[in-house]
Amino acid sequence: MPAEIEQKMQPSEAKLHLAIGAFAAEEVTLGQGAEIAGVSQTEFMRELSRRRIPLHYDREEFAEDLQAIAKLNAQLDHGGHQ
Asked: What residues make up the domain containing 43?
């Protein structure tokens, strides 16, 4: 990174900009973008919203979310009804 830019930008800002660019280009998922930026998914979504960058949500991510929900429901059913 050019020294002039490096002096103006903290490493955390650089990571956030990289993550947002990669997410906007649909090269990474929301979770991956948050991980690159070093923030929670909620914080990353807030930042995307603030910059008016739409969330892309494909069938694969939807299927993963459904699996996670089913797993959580199974855990709750087994833990809460003994």
From this structure: 3-80
